[in-house]
Amino acid sequence: MKKYKKEGKEKAKTLGQLYQFTRKAHPVTGFIILLLGVYHGSQAYSLYVLHTGTVLLYSIFIMAITALVGQKFRAFQKHWRVVHRGIGILVFLSAVLHVFLRNII
Fold first, then answer.
1. In this structure, are residues 59 and 86 in contact, taking their beta carbons and an 8 Å threshold?
2. Which residue, 86, 83, 45, 16, is CA-closest to 53?
């Protein structure tokens, strides 16, 4: 029985370290994705043309603004993660549209 408790503690410690790493890396990767999207969009078309990529880029931008504003304003602190996850669904659907049906708009 002690063997399982020891393995459980080691696994929890490893998962805790992984969580801390991803928590620090998440905003950085989000910013990099936003920059790559701006670069990709400016090379492919223009940032002012309505396209599925533009919809995707704007939804990523709104997602980033939600995270930044949600952490700063007291009225929004409790619910910003729910909104952030909901916009994540919008980002996923926009990405699918952009990859498979890019000329739909």
1. no
2. 45
Angle, helices 2-44 vs 52-72, to 10°: value is: 130
Residue 36 to residues 51, 76, 100, 101, Cα–Cα distance (Å): 16, 28, 19, 20
Q: What is the residue-wise DSSP string for the chain?
A: -HHHHHHHHHHHHHHHHHHHHHHHHHHHHHHHHHHHHHHHHHHHS-TTS--HHHHHHHHHHHHHHHHHHHHH-GGGTTTHHHHHHHHHHHHHHHHHHHHH-TT--
Residue-level pLDDT, tens digit, the chain, 105 residues: 455 556 667 877 888 888 899 989 999 999 999 999 999 988 887 767 788 888 999 999 999 999 888 888 888 888 888 999 999 999 999 999 999 998 887
88, 91, 96, 101 alpha-carbon torsion, rounded to 10°: 160
